[in-house]
Write a structure and sequence with these properties.
Elements (H helix, E strand, L loop, with lengths): L4 E6 L2 E3 L5 E7 L9 E4 L2 E2 L1 E7 L2 E5 L6 E8 L5 E11 L5 E6 L2 E3 L5 E7 L8 E4 L2 E2 L1 E7 L2 E5 L6 E8 L5 E11 L3 E6 L2 E2 L6 E7 L10 E4 L2 E2 L1 E5 L4 E5 L6 E8 L5 E10 L4 E6 L2 E2 L6 E7 L9 E4 L2 E2 L1 E7 L2 E5 L6 E8 L5 E10 L1
């Protein structure tokens, strides 16, 4: 097999105490006969991992200040040397200990504060989220950096800070990119103008990572008792609103929003103005036409009761007309009640007489 070659060593500098995470790129890194070995100035690196034929990662051993050769040796004893490929410095490597917030949107715009050690004031280090450079990098102090997270894809990434001398600090799985939430449905899909209806919002990517809480609005009016029960379910109480379809918006703590256009309808209660005929046999089966207002099929057909007993064959032919068959009932006058799926009802007192 061909001898290995070293193309780059990154970072190119690290602390004399060792432990700097280094990525070596090149060619012909082979596992035939065993893994390659890596030395820095003749001292063995630790945690050597051959990622591929072109990539090796490892941790530097302790060393003395100054430049040293980096050598990769395959198990067949063939090797390559990067002369003065790494420089030991008495300055400690920077460290990344935390991010605030540690979650954000896929698009650019989330301002992040990085806390750690060894940041050099007056310089502009390279800050990466995964493999992408952050923007607006500013070293506030030796322990804090402010930056803007770059565009990302859904998932968790490492965050690294590389000082201008090449020394690097990495925090694994430090930042999570959240996808945009979506609103699929609202159940029930309709309710009263006075609000207070308990609804369940179904969707995707309802995340509670990061600071803040999930917010829900109906036509821009905040819902109450908002509870995120999972990544796909939110429950809340509707606010007061006017008649008509409402736009439902869910906002994740990271500021990303999802809009359900006409996902919920505010409607007036039904009214029952007349029945034809208004008289029928106690055995039931009388075909009745009910006239009124606000008969709604949103969320399901209305129900009709005669003296508390459900009618059969209920057909809604419009917002003002329902037909049905009377149930059996004892003789006498009874109330007729039409109840929409949103639980609002209209009553015609003594609207039908069994005789």
């Amino acid at each position: 097999q061909a001898a290995p070659t070293i193309t780059t060593v990154a970072p190119i500098a690290g602390s004399t105490v060792g432990g700097t995470f280094v990525t070596i790129t090149g060619t012909n890194f082979s596992t035939v006969g065993g893994n390659p070995t890596v030395t820095f100035g003749g001292a063995q690196a630790t945690s050597v991992t051959r990622v591929s034929a072109t990539t090796i990662t490892c941790l530097t051993p302790a060393g003395t200040a100054g430049a040293v050769n980096v050598v990769v040796t395959n198990a067949d004893t063939q090797f390559d040397t990067e002369t003065n490929g790494f420089t030991y410095t008495a300055t400690a490597d920077p460290t990344v200990t935390s991010l605030s917030p540690n979650v954000g949107k896929l698009a650019v715009g989330t301002v992040v504060i990085i806390t750690g050690t060894g940041f050099v004031v007056g310089t502009t280090p390279t800050v990466k989220f995964g493999a992408t450079n952050a923007g607006g990098v500013n070293v506030d102090s030796t322990t804090q950096i402010t930056c803007t997270a770059p565009v990302g894809v859904a998932g968790t990434v490492n965050v690294s800070v590389t000082n201008i001398n090449g020394q690097i600090g990495i925090l694994a799985n430090a930042y999570t990119y959240e996808p945009v939430p979506t609103v699929i449905s609202v159940t029930p899909p309709a309710g009263v103008l006075t609000g207070g209806t308990d609804v369940t919002i179904t969707g995707t990517n309802f995340f509670d990572l990061g600071a803040g809480t999930t917010q829900v609005t109906f036509d821009g009016i905040s819902a109450t008792d908002v509870v995120r029960t999972s990544d796909t379910i939110i429950t809340c109480k509707t606010p007061v609103n006017t008649v008509g379809s409402a736009i439902v918006i869910v906002t994740n703590p990271d500021g990303q929003v999802s809009t359900g256009v006409s996902a919920y309808t505010y409607q007036n209660p039904p009214t029952v103005t007349s029945l034809s005929p208004a008289l029928g046999d106690p055995a039931g089966g009388t075909y009745v036409t009910i006239t009124g207002t606000n008969f709604s099929t949103i969320g399901g057909n209305p129900t009709v009761t005669f003296g508390g007993v459900a009618a059969t064959g209920v057909v809604v032919t419009g917002t003002t007309l329902i037909t049905c068959y009377t149930p059996a009932h004892a003789e006498g006058s009874v109330d007729v009640v039409v109840t929409n799926a949103d639980t609002q009802s209209g009553t015609r007192v003594n609207g039908f007489n069994y005789s």
